[in-house]
Fold Odorant receptor.
Amino acid sequence: MYFDRCDTNEVSYVDYACGWNRKIMKFIGIWPDERGFAYASSYRVLFLIGFMFFFITLPQTINLYFIWGDFELIVENLSVANMTTTIATLKAVTFWSNGRYYFLRKKRDMKILLSRMENDRKEATTEENVRKMTRIANISRRITAGSIIMCNFLVFTYVTLTTLMLPYTGRVLYYHGYFPYDTSIFPNFELTLIGQITAELYAANSYTTVDTFMTMLMLHVCGQFSSLRKKLSTLRCENNNNFRTDLARIVEKYDMLNRYAETIEDRFNGMLLIQMLGCTIQLCVQSYQVISAFVDDNQGLLVIRLFFFAVYTTYVMLHIYLYCYVGQKLLSEGIKVAYAAYDCNWYNLSPKEAKNLTIIMSRTQIASRITAGKFCSFDHQLFGNVSNKFYSSNYNE
């Protein structure tokens, strides 16, 4: 049967749920393995950051000084590479720092979370729980595979279209920027193009893998809340001794899951705030470029710009929706624990024991959330507001 595919005796549940994420994160150096200051593999990510910073972020940021005052060139600078690569660099650094070992902070947050995931799978002894966890792992794998394919397709599309335009545009870089050497001569031009392609591939994959990895973690928490809710709703209330023991285990597990979600929130809410701000700027400048294409004299580029805009906008909005979806699911699964407490046979309990359920129901009203810098929570309402404002602004213009 399909739930046997991730048997913990044959393969790690974390490795199975991560899918391509683990391989790509190991390659770029941000996978939360055991690391230390003495190991060279701990600093592999610096190679990734160096490519992104020196071939795209730094040249394009410096170039803003020289093009300041030309609105069209500023929009082109911020439309794709500069903002995306900056956000990807921030994500890589944030994720890497939470997987490293620090002398001042004797813990590795991501390593701890993955260990808890593995323990949850080992503790799942019933066929129903194994099926549920495997189903969640399969969903995570599909999300990861789809997102990675889409981000690399996006880079491939942009590079291909720009390369095909080189006979008409001349020796122009994929991403305009300021370099301390002449980029129009051989081999500087070719080497810079290779560096920019490599940097953008690194940026696209680090941007995507961090998002899908966090999605996997949150879906796991939601699945554990669902299993815990099932245990609480079927809790036997006839035997007082068993009730107290089983309820204590449920409360302990509930607190652990909340700490799990709060760890993710505390470590990444600042990163998510910058990502939301960056995505807002990107969507605005991309929309402006498309609108400008309709009134541009060169109508031959209109189809190309519209195609790239559609693919890129879909990619950005899907990643925003991922966070809103898991944020909404986390919120609703946490609150549903209160309904599970009401569904159990509480009427067979003594008043003193029934108060314990009341306390649990009150605690679940303060459900865990995923926020952007503590300013707003990721949920369906947030995604609806973003979508409505984005499409209504394009329509009005």
User: Anything to note?
Assistant: Residues 389 and 395 are 10 Å apart (CA to CA). The mean pLDDT is 82. The chain is about 75% helix and 0% strand.
